[in-house]
Structure formats: structure tokens, C-alpha cells
Amino acid sequence: MIREHYPRAWQHLRDAQQAKRAMAASWSTLVEGGLVEENVVTYADGSGVISARLAWPPGAQAELTELFRGCVQELWACLDALVAESVEAFSVLHRPRRPERPRFFPVADSPDGFRALLAESCMDGTLRSHVAMVEDCQPFQGQDGTEVIDRIRRGLAYLLEWEAALDAGAVMGAWATPVEPQVRTAAPCVVESLQAAAPGALAEEEHVLARYQLSFYRTGCAVETQAGTYVDLCFTEGFDPADGEDTFDRRLDLVIEAVTRFAASFAWLSSQVSGSRHVLASGRADGADTWIEATRSSRNWSGEELAALASSDLGLGRVEGTDTLTLLVSTPSGVYERVIPHATPLRHHDRQGTAAEMAVKDAAATWGLPDFVMAPSVERKGRGVREISDGLLVVGDRGVVVQIKAREGEPGTHERERSWVLKQLTAAGRQVQGTVRRLKAQGVQMVNGRGHSLNIDSPAIDWVGAIILEHPDPPQDLAVAAQDGSTPVIAMLRRDWEFLFNQLRSTHAVVCYLHRVGASAPVLGGEPERYYELAAADAEAVPGDLDPSVARRGGQPHSVPLLPAAPAGSDDDEAHTMVRIMLEDVATSPSGPAGREAWQRVLASLDSLPVGYRTELGRFLLDALDTVTGAEQGTTVWRMRTFVAGPGWDQLGFAACSALTDHTRAAFSAWLQLRHHERGEYSDLTGLRSVGVLLTPRADGYRDWDTTVLAVNGDLKLTDEELRTYQDLFNRPAPGAPPEG
Fold it and tell me: Which value, to the nearest 10 degrees, does the dihedral of the CA atoms of residues 142, 143, 148, 153 take?
């Protein structure tokens, strides 16, 4: 379970255990090579000592110290990774506070110190149960009689002590524990007394292990001794054993046990949370690295190659590598290189098919919104049970039935793999058709990626199917035949599924894309090329008419293709991140079970904003918040913007205000109602919706701003007096003010 939920922490724990084994092996070699030198001295009065010293070979002590330092560092890295990976995994469910601050595992020597660390956001984004467990196991809590908890606290205390000592320059050494020293001599000499010394650290100077006294001793009398002493590898700095059982090796085992228990507990607590997770990190390039001018590529494309591509009919080139697929895309701004990495790593799981299902849902939740990702549900059918697909995407009145097929075991010959893929596509296609028939028969209750249970009005949704293939080496140039059935089905590789979500960063946009194509690409794995062919067609399409209500009040037309060539966020990652933060704020606003379906529709409306508009919106929100935050005391400053993608689309309004009061809430509501009413002058309002989002800055440090959401539908039946009041407020721009867009 640890490896499944916390792969980086699991690897650090493994590396720490490996470092401990390496220390033991190195120590054994040193001891066998004569590291410990024993010495016996008998004095003329019959008194004598048994002693020992360490004869370190050059560099051996430093090597052991570095192994121990590495073990300690890996244990800390494991604890820190538990926090960091928790934040990453659950960031798909909510927005962590102060994301710029480092996340780490806090350990303090007092309650006040621990609270101070938490105030720095070191665990913000983890589960509350994670924080509670870490606090309960702090070393300052003392011993309370609970054996497991007390052992964990002692383990953390040792880890703290070791780190501090290593930083201060302490080195590895050895610890001598005299157990049963022996002295034998010949008559008339008699052993009068023999006393073992207290355990202690060995060094390069002689260390006494035992003292003895002989009676009737004469010079030259033979004396034989045995040290009878355990000499163990030890970090002697601050080592004060409670008894003979308290060894450095056992302390190190205790520390590793404590860290392992933390990892297992973090994993168990995480497994209890329903919903999606962030995809596993894979070292894949970000949007800025995957979309660059071809002239700046490390592949050194020649000018002739780029010119030929730009003048070709499709303006699209493909290079298949061992790690990535690279496309050359001709745009009006020049030829660009688009790198499409392989799919993200699968989580370690008993079955690869289960891991693939998790990865497909996690990708949709990571780059889209988890609210629209529905986990498979199981329902009874007669005496048996059946699963409703491998998951659904539902955004507004459109949905996608997902079926995932994973190749388990070692692939066979090329022909065998082609046969396997075709067989799986046929089986998955039948499953999609059966699932859609079930969904069209009656509604279904499902749990979305945020862990909320929703009633899905599935008969009212327009469905397509998506078959996602997980294969370590998919057959090349495999033609994909059209699927039988009334529901369109699109087959693709998991890499291509992740490409679409990473390219568009919008669940609504991906679902619309799948409905638009309505069939598989001609060749398996050809989805990226098809996307760019459609993106090129969108770029050349004639812009539609501007909504008359927007044009009348001075709105500016802004034409963008529905499918952008550049990955979302590559032009202004800060602006796109701002839009995602706003959507997260809306998605995580409190809403009871009775209001979740309505809230889903509001969120779907906001996610319907075309990708090409999001840079402008994000930049507007950032600039607007800066402006209203700096408003003078006693003044109220507004910034407002509306977006209408087309006559039949939902109207989206965004505003920032310097204060959140009853007055400004009412003013925002009036503005949204007016803008919605104005659409009725040219269109039937019956099926139209307007959604507004208001951001107001906060100064308490808990959040940067408050988010207020309103939605209105249909004819609002504003009175003449209300209409005049609203128009006086919002349709008379101040002198020199730009028109509302």
C-alpha cells in the first residue's frame, strides 16, 4: 500500500534500509580485517588490564559516517515525501494555501514550536488525520503508556539527535560492551579478582575492557585472557544505553520502524478518502517545454525541412522516438515543435488493469476537474452485480463512457499483439453500447472525483464512448475499424488521452472534442495528429457573429479557435493557473447534498469557457485583484468582464471588488441580472443561463480572496424600476473608462 500511494517515500525508505545493510556489511569486513586491536598488560604487582583500540584503515571511518548520514537523510526524505506526495495527490481535490511555501514533515521540541511550523503551511494540503497523527507522535509529547506511539516518539527523537550531531561533525565509531572477560594463569599464580569495565566507546586510544588482580604473580608467568566483549558499530555521540539490550543497531531499527509506521499510516488514511488523485510525477516536460519554435529545438531541424513542412498541405510532421512522439506543426507564427511524452507512470498495484483505470481517471481529474470524473458504480442485476463502465465523464448535457483495456504480462509477437488489441477493441465497444443502453434507461447515482455522490440524469445526456488502451509496446500503424452500434466510440492509447487533457486543461473541452470527432482516428495512436489537423482547420475558420447584446454595450469581438495549437497555459501559465484556482474555489464552495447537482451545472458552465479565452480571463482577474486591493480607504472599486462564446452558450461574468459587503453583493447580483436580461432583447431566455463569479480580497492571511458565485436562468421578469436602476448603475461608464468586454 505504501508504494501505491507514496512511491517516492517508499523508495526513500528502501534506500535507507539499503544504507543500513551497507553499513553492516562494511563493518563486518572491517572487523574481520583486524579493525579491533586487543591488548593485555600485567604489571609486576599482579594487577592487569585488558584493553582495545580501533585501527581504522584510511578513509574507512569517513565512509561509514557517510553511509550513516545517507541513511538518516533518506529517512528524513521519506517523511518529507509523505507530506509532499500527500499535497500533490490531494491538490486535485482542493487548493492548498500558500503553494509557494515548502512542504515538509514537522518535528518540534514543544507544542508552540510545532504550531509555529504548521503556521508556515508545512503540512497544508495534507489530510487533517495526517496532521493529527504527526502531532500526536511528536517527541515533546512524552511517554503515555501506549507502546506503539511511545516507540514512534523515541524513534523521532533519535532521528533528531542524530541529524544534529552529524551536522556538528560527529563521526561513526564503535561501542564495547564487556560481557564475560576471562583470565587464566598457571600455578602458583591465582586469579584473585576480575572486573569487567563499564560499556563505552572505542577509539584510536586504548580503552579498558576489564581489570584483574593476580596473586603470587611472578614476572614471566604465563597469562591468557579473553576480552569477552561485544564490539558493535555505533554512532557514539550522545549514546547512553539504558541496559545491555539498548544497542545502536536496535535504535536504528526502531527509527526505521517509526518511519515505516508513518508511511503505512499515511497510506492507510489516504486510501480511506474517496475521489481522484493527481497523476504520478514522471519527469515529463511542462507546457512551456513541449511547445517551442522548431528553430530552437535540440533536434536541429534544417531550414529546408521546416520550409517544406510549412508549404505542405497538412503542415504536420511526425517523429516517433523511444520516449516521446514529436510533432512539427505549421502555424501562422511559424513552425513549432510539440513534444508528446509517453503516458505517466502507473501506480504499483496487484493488477495492471486496475492501475491503468486509476491513471485514466487521475489524468482527467488532474488536468481537467475531478468534479466531472465519475468512478465506476456497481448495481445488482438479478442475482448478480454489474459495473457501469470503467468510469464516466459528465459535463453538463454531454458525457463520455470510458472503457479501459490493459495488456498484462509480457507482450508476444507483433501479430499476436495486433490480434489482442483488435479483440479488446471489439469487446470494449460492446461494453460501451451496453452501458449507454443502461444509462439511457434510467438515471444512476455515482461518486465523482471529489468524493461527492451525485444523481446523474443519464437519459438526458448525449453520450459517446472512449476506449483507452494501456499497452507497453502497442502495434504500429494498426488501422482501427469503425465500431458497430448507435453510440459513437473513439479508441486511443492512454498517452493520447493524457495528451488531450494536458493540451486543453478543460474537461468540457475534451468532452466536446470527443463528441466532435465521433470516431477513432484511422490509426491507433494517431489522435495527436488528428487533433492538430482539426486545430489547423479551426484556425482558418471564419469567426461567428458577435452576440448582439454584447456588441450593443461596446463589447470587443475576440476570435480564437476552439482547439488551440499551443498547449493551454504555454502562453501565460500564471493566467491559466489563476483560472484553475478560481474553478477550484467554486468547486470546493460549501454545498449540501441537495445542491450538488445544481452546483455541478454551474461549474460546467464555467468550464465551458473556451480554452483560447482563458489567458485573457486569467490576466484580467490577476490585474483586477491588484487594482481593487490597492483601493483607497472608504472607496469601492470594481472591475467587471463578461464572456459570451456564442449565441447559444452560457454567459459568464467575472468581477473583482475592493470589499465584500451586503451592498456589494447586491450590486454584483444586479449587474449579473442586467447582463442576463439584455440577452433577452435578441434571444429567447428560456434556455439561457448566466453565471457570475465575484472575487474580493482578504487581509487575514488565511486566503488571498473570497469567491462569490451567482447563477440566473430564464426570464428574470425584472420590473421597469429595477431595470432603470440597474442600467443607471452599470450602463454609464465613467469618462475615459474602457467598455466592458
Answer: 20
Q: How would you label 141-152 residue by residue, b for 16+ Cβ within 10 Å and e otherwise? A: beeeeeeebebb
| Lowest-pLDDT choice from 238-247, 391-400, 421-430, 537-546 | 537-546
Q: What is the mean pLDDT of the chain?
A: 90
Query: Does the structure show a pLDDT above 80 at 133?
Result: yes
**Integer Rg of the chain from CA:** 35
Q: Which of 708, 481, 491 is nearest to 589 (CA)?
A: 708
Q: How far apart are CA 138 and CA 149, in angstroms?
A: 9
Q: What is the residue type of 157?
A: A
Cβ atoms of 708 and 653 within 8 Å: the answer is: no
Q: Is the distance from CB of 601 to CB of 708 less than 8 angstroms? A: no
In angstroms, what CA-CA distances link 464 with 310, 396, 505, 676?
Answer: 34, 14, 20, 32
* Cα 270-271-273 angle, rounded to 5 deg: 70
- The model's pTM is 0.86
Q: At residue 422, what are phi and psi to the nearest 5 degrees? A: -65, -40
Percent over 90 (pLDDT), the chain: 71
Beta-carbon contacts of residue 637 (< 8 Å; ≥ 6 apart)? 627, 628, 631, 657, 658
Alpha-carbon span 367 to 343, nearest angstrom: 14
Cβ pair 210, 195 in contact under 8 A: yes
pLDDT in tens, 557-590: 566 788 999 999 998 999 999 999 999 999 988 7
Interior/surface letters 674-686, b for 16+ CB within 10 angstroms, e for the rest: bbbbbbbeeeebe
Which of 69-73, 446-450, 555-559, 624-628 is predicted least confidently?
555-559
Distance CA 157, CA 662 (A): 52
DSSP, residue by residue, 449-475:
TTS-EEEE-GGGSEEEEEEEEE-SSPP
Overall residue count recorded for the chain in this entry: 741
How far apart are the C-alpha atoms of 499 and 619, rounded to whole Å?
Answer: 25
3-state secondary structure of 230: strand
Residue 643 φ then ψ, to 5°: -130, 130
> What is the distance between the alpha carbons of residues 725 and 732, in angstroms, rounded to a whole number?
11
Quick check: 616 and 590 in contact, CB under 8 A? Answer: no
Hey, is 584 helix, strand or coil?
A: helix
The answer to whether the beta carbons of residues 126 and 87 sit under 8 Å apart is: yes
Instruction: Provide the pLDDT confidence category of residue 318 given band limits of 50, 70 and 90.
Output: confident
CA distance 537 to 254: 64
For 667-676, write each residue's pLDDT tens digit: 999 999 999 9
pLDDT at 407: 93
pLDDT digits (tens, 9 = 90+) for 411-429: 889 999 999 999 999 999 9
What residues form DSSP beta bridges with 455? 445
Burial class (CB in 10 A: 0-12, 13-18, 19+), 305: middle
- How far is Cα 270 from Cα 257, in angstroms, rounded to an integer? 20
Comparing 280-289, 351-360, 468-477, 615-624, which segment has the lowest mean pLDDT?
Answer: 280-289
- Cell numbers that stand for 375 in this block: 468512478
User: Which among 266, 256, 255 is positioned nearest to 105, based on CA atoms?
Assistant: 266
Which helix (H) or strand (E) element contains residue 601? helix 596-607
Amino acid found at 298:
S
Q: Residue 555's Cα: distance from chain center in Å?
A: 40
Q: Where does the pLDDT of residue 736 fall: very low under 50, low under 70, confident under 90, or very high at 90 and above?
A: very low
